Amino acid sequence: MDQTAPDMNEERTPVPGGIRLGPLRKAYERFVKIRGNPREVALGFALGVFVGITPTMGLQTAIAIFFAALFKWNKISAAVGVWISNPLTAPILYSITYFAGARILGMDIHLHQPDIGVTTFFLIIEKAPEIFWAMTVGGAVLGLPVAVAAYTFAFSAVSKYQEGIRRRLAARKERLVRRKRKGKTRRKKQKK
Questions:
Q1: 75-85 burial, b for 16+ CB within 10 Å, e for fewer?
Q2: Is residue 14's pLDDT more than 70?
Q3: Distance of CA 49 to CAs 1, 15, 68, Å?
């Protein structure tokens, strides 16, 4: 049986905006259940998102976990955050970071379809450092506001989830205390 399956009595975690998409809802529910201080979880997530926007594909998770451990932030949420760049979003994300970085660095941007061939391959290899630096600068500039937004989202979501858990536990504890008091009162009446 799946260890992560929610208990049937467990209250569903509300998704902001009423998102009803199955996989997104499941990912959101698993994310808010990451254990730890909401601030540390949110900082780890923001770090992961920032690293995910940089052109370090293949090393992003290791980089995010290393820095999360160094700063004592949540390593799991940092690893989750890097998934902002995935096979579906990477082409769009890296194009945007390249164009932003190239603009900032004052590089010429050519938007024509290159001929595919050996010459084009060697031209790309020759320009690789220039492309890398444009993507790095663009990733840093665009990554900061996105990381701030990610922090805000994660902190709010995790805090609300943990507060709901605390309220449910306090209510359960209060019910147990009332039952215990009723039981003592009944026993006293029976003794008399």
A1: bbbbbbbbebb
A2: no
A3: 32, 20, 12
- Give 131's contacts (C-beta < 8 A, 6+ positions apart): 98, 124
Q: How far is CA 4 from CA 45, 116, 141, 161, in A?
A: 21, 48, 37, 16
Handedness of CA 69, 71, 77, 83 (dihedral sign): negative
**Residue 5 falls inside a structural domain:** no
* Sequence letter at residue 148: V
> Could you tell me how many residues make up the chain?
192
The answer as to whether 9 is a domain residue is no
- Closest by CA to 65, choosing from 53, 80, 54, is 80
- Which tens digits make up the pLDDT trace of 129-169? 998 999 999 999 999 999 999 999 999 999 999 999 999 99
- Give the chain's domain count: 1
Domain encompassing residue 142: 20-191
pTM over 0.70: yes
